[in-house]
Amino acid sequence: MKTTLSVIGMTCGHCKMSVEGALNELNGVKSAEVNLASGKVDVTYDEAEVTLDAMRLAVEEQGYDVVA
Ligand SMILES: [Cu+2]
């Protein structure tokens, strides 16, 4: 499965690394790629192993807001 999260507050390379790192730590997330210009995160994942809620939480724990 693929999804795109809209994330508010990512401004620099550090934000990109934080968000991508948090998502990649989740079991079932295969790849996560932040586009800083658009504030979008493209995620490829296995829906049997990880939920959208878990991904949102992981991003929010880094200090960013996820738009539903
Ligand atoms: Cu930053």
Supply the key terms.
68 residues; Alpha-Beta Plaits; 4-stranded antiparallel sheet; 2 helices; 4 strands; globular; binds copper (II) ion
The top-level CATH class is Alpha Beta
Bin the strand percentage.
Answer: 25-35%
Backbone CA Rg: 11 Å
Per the CATH scheme, the topology name is Alpha-Beta Plaits
CATH architecture: 2-Layer Sandwich
**Total domain units:** 1
Task: Give the names of the bound compounds.
Answer: copper (II) ion
Work out the helicity level.
25-40%
- Numbering strands along the chain, what is their spatial order in the largest sheet? 2-3-1-4
Low-pLDDT stretches are none
Principal-axis shape equals globular
Structural class: alpha+beta
Break the fold down into its secondary structure elements and pairings.
Layout: E1 2-8, H1 13-24, E2 29-35, E3 40-45, H2 52-61, E4 65-67
Antiparallel strand pairs: 1-3, 1-4, 2-3
The structure holds copper (II) ion (CU).
